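Case study.
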Amino acid sequence: MVDAPVSSLLGRGRSRGRMSPEQRAVVTDFLYSRARVGSPHLRNFIVLSVLSSAIAAMGLLLDSAAAVIGAMLLGPFITPLLAVAGALIQGWTTRLGDAALVLALGMALSITSALVTGRLFASELDRTVLPAQLLSLTRPGLLDLGIALAAGLAAGYATMRTEAAGALSGVAVSVTVEPPLAAIGLFVASGRSDDVQRAGLALVTNFGALVLGATAAMAFWGFGDRGTRGPTRQARLGLAAWVLLMAAVTVPLAFYSRDVVRNTAFEQQVSRTVTEWDPSVRVVSVDAETDGERAEVRIDVTGPRRPEPAWKLAELLSSRRGERVEVSLTFTLTQEDRAVSTD
Amino acid sequence: MPRVALAVCAVLGAAACGDDDGATRPVVTLFGTLSDADVDDVDAAFAEFEQRSGIDVRFVASSGFEDDLVDRLRRGDPPDLALLPQPGLLQRLVAEGYALPWEADLAAAATDGVDRTLVDLVTVGDRVFGSWYQLTVKSLVWYSPSELDERGIAVPSTWDDLERITADAAADASPPWCIGIRAAGATGWVATDWVEDLVLRFAGPDVYDGWVARDVRFADTPVVEAIGRFGDIVLDPQMVAGGNRAAVEIGVEDSARQFAAGSSCLFHRQASFLPRFLDEPATIEPDGDLWAFPLPPVDGRQAPLVVGGTVIARFRDDAAVDQVAAHLSTVEAGVARAELGGFLSARDGVSPAAYTNSFDRWLAELVRDAEVVRFDASDQMPPTVGVGTFWTGMASWLGGARLSSVADAIDESWPLIQPRIVIDDRTDTADAEVPGG
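After joint prediction, the assembly is written out as follows.
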């Protein structure tokens, strides 16, 4: 994070209450000198957008939490995001446009970077069952919206309050932004259009909630100022539009959340049933989906011998659930071959 | 090396094994081969019967059906009923004592309105062991009507016409055929279907019947010539999209999709179930996306047809099982299934008018009017050959093995001692006995 320590510029010791004009000016200068095309800081933003997304993409392919966290540390999106929030509070349309443009540029670069990474490591995406972290990005839910909202609040709060560490709030923002951006690039590279849509929904949700949270936090802790505010009508319209966008996104998310809960319960049932179906196998991965009438299970198991036939698992699940169950089973033989030779 | 298996289990009705009032409803399992669309259609066709009878029919389908069925039977875990794609497999299961006979009313239901030749294929001694559920027409050549129109090509009615059209296309550097024989666990069946059609056309039905009965061997001239004719097509790099290695490298379903995608080839020889292989639904009409003509005859007469089919076999003696078996053997069940499309009944009572789409209706008329109809030879042969060495032999030959060696190897694999079937009339069970061990 290079853009995070905004709060350090504000001086220490501010307690509750509105910001002083000097402090507001420092924050404003910091945000809007960076969140615009043509800024000398833009090069850093571009480089970090590209690199953080590439690292996140590789981390997702490897299912490596460490690599994805590393990408989050580098993620540069907090500044333009806070700039959008501040512009919404103040009704600064030009600054809002500038910040949104920088955000769009960063998103485009991040997706392209992940796309190139996906093309380079395309074989990793050919597998039927996606790595768990990547798979989770195709199932956005209300919990993701909650995380993004909290991260936005944290980012806004940290910007206004010197007690909170700005760098950490930048990571919180990256948590909700970097993985979906990288996932979109990877899914585009592998032609998974359905997954692109789902990860896209996750991204829109997260960005929207982040901005909403940050806007609320910045407004609450005194970023608003009548003296420098643009036309009030514009500010209200901007906020109303944003709230409406979030409300619109919440509807599909509520459905996704219901599906996620239902599918997670189904996956747990599959895992339990597998131990009954064939105790000799170990489950490598399970991907189970149901709409209440038809269920699909993609399961990857390994074991020391050929497992029980797939039809038996399908029948067990179907009889318990009372619905059509389709099982795609991939089995890998675990075979240990040891030898010793003495002279 | 990872192995992949697919299975679908479908249950109809509100409850799998019980009514809302807690009363237990009988469950009858039907085991079959895997095809997504089939699973849905079989399910749908049972809906009215389940409601009326109070029986839950559970259809379990597996991509490894043949192996799984034999495994289940040997472990003492038989399904109640199975849809067998090969009468040869039924004969084996009868010989091994697993399949139960259809007696009295059930036998009458199984044979009523079914061609005598088909009934003979499921009869052992004087007992019927299966009921025909559906037929497929194998001897079809698929084409795109608009593609042929654009090229000014008329649908060929003789073998000479077909040879001329395909030779012209090959000369224009436009491979006429899409062929792929690779199939998980079943590589080779497309090649055996080709050879069967060519034996029937060029050697005639008597030789074909003799071949099935092993009076004519694989190494005999008529069969070797038929395989050679197939080789003239499939091994000619100008004749097959993708070149002379394409057939062994491309999967059966992939070659169907390659053909349906257009521009790769003119023709694709495949059975009436080709639409099941396609990712995108195609309009099957004479002026639609795809249509078919019978593989032409050599003598200018009507094209002989090779057909395949699915037989219902019983493995449990139970009133509910018999009720389902009897239902599946009725004209009403055939009509209900025909209305869903992609189905050709083996029963005379299901008239062409019962079929809701023009392709199924055309198939029904084709079979009804054909002068020469023969059942798929490999499906009648002992499974060791029919779904074993004949398949693998064709794959080996296309991979470069010598034809004479392959033919000899298939002949040698034919089981010399057929299991003798001993029916115990008192217990209604069949035991297998292999003379001489």
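Observations recorded in class. Chain A touches chain B at residues 300, 306, 309-315, 317-333 (CB under 8 Å). Confidence is low (pLDDT under 50) at residues 1-16 of chain A. We will return to this complex in the next lecture.
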